[in-house]
Amino acid sequence: MSTVPPTSSEKQIRQSEMPPAGSLIMSGMRTTAQLHIGNYHGALKQWLELQKDYKGFYGAMNWHAMTSRYKEPHDVMNFVREIVAEWLAWGLDPDQNIIFVQSEVPEHVELCMFFLMMTPMSWLERVPTWKDAEEDAKASDTHNLGRFMYPVLQAADIAIYRGTHVPIGQDQIPHLELSREIIRRFNFLYGGNLPEPKPIFSQTPTLVGSDGRKMSKSYSNAFALTQEPDEITKTLRAMPTDPARVKRTDPGEPTKCPVYSFHKLYSNAEDLTWVEAGCRSAGIGCGDCKKKLGDNINSEMMGPREAKRKLLVDGDKLDMIIADGCARARKEAKIQIDQVRSWTGFKPNHDW
Predict the structure, then answer these.
(1) pLDDT tier at 208, thresholds 50, 70, 90
(2) What architecture is domain 10-206+315-344?
(3) N or C: more exposed end of the chain, with fewer CB within 10 A?
(4) Separation of alpha carbons 58 and 73, rounded Å
(5) Distances (CA, A) of 7 to 11, 65, 177
(6) 149: helix, coil or strand?
(7) For 96-115, how does the pLDDT look when each residue is reduced to its tens digit (9 = 90+)?
(8) What is the dihedral of CA 23, 63, 307, 316, to 10 degrees?
(9) Is residue 7's pLDDT more than 50?
């Protein structure tokens, strides 16, 4: 059987535009840990905007989480409820969207099997997130087949719902392009008409963690998305500031201070002016600056923090929302997998 070489390039998907009416958005988060503010500003905030105009499929991706946390499956499943509660608390609408758990929709895995059989290994070997992190994966005992085939399952996650658009950051372009190549090859081989997903780029801010490095769950330096007030104060107190401000009377430069980057996310124009002028003149100390930021972060987190607490306490309501979303997702996925079976000749034969 002949094959079709990939014809598109990453350059073709570097420019995104808002989807037309009727587009389907597909996205998700791995259930490896509690969400941090980078997850909000890099993804969830955009989901909340997109839901105003588009139907979305948003998944708690626990199979993807198992690629790195296969030794702690119970933790992976516990984070499912935690993360979905977080989404709902911040305003993701379960009526406007379909919120599901990846492992509860077996059609993801079935479509992934079709994709695996026709995806050249060379396509996966060139994925930057595999090549660049291979040594770290070996050191952490996560150099496994699941991690290698991660992009193929990702393509199936999108295609099973006929997702037309995927919110991504610029660093995720290679993954999306690979999904497009896999879907394109499937369509060529079997006469399918799965959409090739297009990007919606998120304006992900560069966030530093409490230790001054890039914010990451793996560094344990992330700010939880709904921290308690005392935890916010503790986290901010440990954050490094402009190294030029050795003494309280030393002037500083806000743009060189990690704390200031958070002020730009959580503080209004008046507070930003106060921080900039006070830092440069040494009119305020770093403690004053951090206290103002802590007050602003706590003010924004207060409502969602209480909403999330109620959802987790009233577990029945949360479980009903998750169960309903999974049922709706399975209904949509079954329609597509039946079509895939028809294209490939894998239709069930009940006479056997």
Answers:
(1) confident
(2) 3-Layer(aba) Sandwich (3.40)
(3) C
(4) 21
(5) 12, 31, 11
(6) coil
(7) 999 999 999 999 999 999 99
(8) 110
(9) no
For the chain, give percent helix, strand, coil, nearest 5: 60, 10, 35
H/E run at residue 115:
helix 107-118
Q: Give the mean pLDDT of 244-257.
A: 90
Residue 2's pLDDT band, with cuts at 50, 70 and 90, is very low
Cα separations (Å) of 98 from 161, 265, 316? 10, 29, 18
User: Has residue 4 got a pLDDT over 50?
Assistant: no
Please determine, for residue 83, whether its predicted confidence score (pLDDT) is greater than 90. yes
Find out whether 314 and 283 touch, Cβ atoms under 8 Å: no
Give the pLDDT of residue 6. 45
pTM of the model: 0.89
pLDDT, one tens digit per residue, over 274-297 is: 999 999 999 999 999 999 999 999
- Residue 24 burial (CB count, 10 A): 20
The answer to whether residue 1 scores a pLDDT higher than 50 is: no
The per-residue pLDDT for 219 is 62
- Residues sharing a CB contact under 8 Å with residue 336, sequence separation 6 or more, in sequence order: 107, 111, 159, 160, 161, 162
Domains of the chain, by residue range, sit at: 10-206+315-344, 226-311
Virtual torsion, Cα 281, 284, 285, 290, nearest 10 deg: -120
- Round to whole Å and give the CA distance between 64 and 146: 8
Convert 202-269 into a string of H (helix), E (strand) and C (coil): CCCCCCECCCCCECCHHHCCCCECCCCHHHHHHHHHCCCCCCCCCCCCCCCCHHHCHHHHHHHHHCCH
| Cα Rg of the chain (Å, integer) | 23
CATH topology of domain 226-311: Tyrosyl-Transfer RNA Synthetase (1.10.240)
Cα 300 from Cα 118, distance rounded (Å): 47
Please name the residue that has the structure tokens 């009903």: 320
Query: Cα(123)–Cα(183) distance, rounded to whole angstroms?
Result: 13
Same fold, 10-206+315-344 and 226-311: no
Q: DSSP 3-state assignment of 24? A: strand
